[in-house]
């Protein structure tokens, strides 16, 4: 699928805010982990493991590419960064493609 200029522009406008909100959510989870009960060393290593995993997600770090927009949107949805409601401003073609890819 060829991503339209309008969809590409909209994606580039939305991604920074989506990432900020997602990283804020992650930070809250990290604080909760650290403030929870348990041995300090276990919490430390669990946090390190979480950060290592989380920083690979598109909600934290993404290489912007017009051709990857549908796949990136699917990853963002599957990782809980955004929902299908968040893509309602995009073209119906792109929305349909994302919904199709998300079902595979």
Structural account:
This protein is mostly helical and 104 residues long. The chain has one domain (5-103). The chain has helices at 5-35, 40-54, 69-78, 92-103.
Would you spell out the secondary-structure blueprint of this structure?
Blueprint: H1 5-35, H2 40-54, H3 69-78, H4 92-103
Based on the model shown, name its key terms.
single chain, 104 residues, mainly alpha
Q: What is the domain total for the residues?
A: 1
Termini separation: 16 Å
- Most strands sheet: none
Tally of contiguous helical segments: 4
- Residue fraction in strands: under 5%
Number of strands: 0
Briefly summarize what is shown.
This protein has 104 residues and is mostly helical. The protein is built from 4 helices and no strands.
